[in-house]
Each structure stands twice: as structure tokens, then as C-alpha cells.
Design a protein that fits this description.
By secondary structure, this protein is α/β, with parallel strands linked by helices. Helix content is 46%, strand content 21%. It is built from four helices and three strands. The protein has a three-stranded parallel beta sheet with strand order 2-1-3, with helices on one face. The chain is flat and about 30 Å long. The protein starts with a strand and ends with a helix.
Length: 80
């Protein structure tokens, strides 16, 4: 089974405007999805390291340009 790691930036403009209820509805009860909600991006390195340790196969980013940039930078620099 493919394990999915989902990072949600609670501070992204879209998520602040529209909320994440629809995402939560899909994720709740899905045993193959690890969902981490970030109120601040300083938790990102630990979250990605945790996903790696948990054997995540697919990384999904729910946020804006800054969130994607932060995730890609962390993946390239730290290689969790």
C-alpha cells in the first residue's frame, strides 16, 4: 500500500480563506495518509524527517507558492 504524507499550511492564503474542512473530510479515516498541519513553517524540517522515517512514498503539499518552495528547499538541502 502506498503511504501518503500530506503537509497542510494553515497560514496559506487559500486555506485561511476557505478552510481545510474538505481536506479533513477526505483524510479522516484514511489509514494510508499521514496529515501534518503547520501553523508555522519552522516545523517543516521535523515533519519531513518524520514522513521519511514513517516510509512515506508520496508527498502532497496543501499550500501556496511559499509552502511549495519551503518543502522543495528542505528536501534538496536536508534530504530527509
Amino acid at each position: 500500500m502506498t503511504k501518503i504524507g500530506l503537509v497542510t499550511n494553515l497560514e496559506s492564503q487559500y486555506n485561511r480563506r476557505h478552510g481545510i474542512e474538505a481536506v479533513e473530510t477526505v483524510v479522516n479515516g484514511a489509514s494510508d495518509i499521514l496529515h501534518e498541519r503547520l501553523a508555522t513553517m519552522d516545523r517543516l524540517p521535523g515533519v519531513l524527517a518524520g514522513f521519511s522515517a514513517a516510509g512515506v512514498d508520496v508527498l502532497v503539499v496543501n499550500g501556496g507558492d511559499g509552502t511549495v518552495q519551503g518543502v522543495l528547499t528542505e528536501l534538496l538541502e536536508a534530504r530527509p
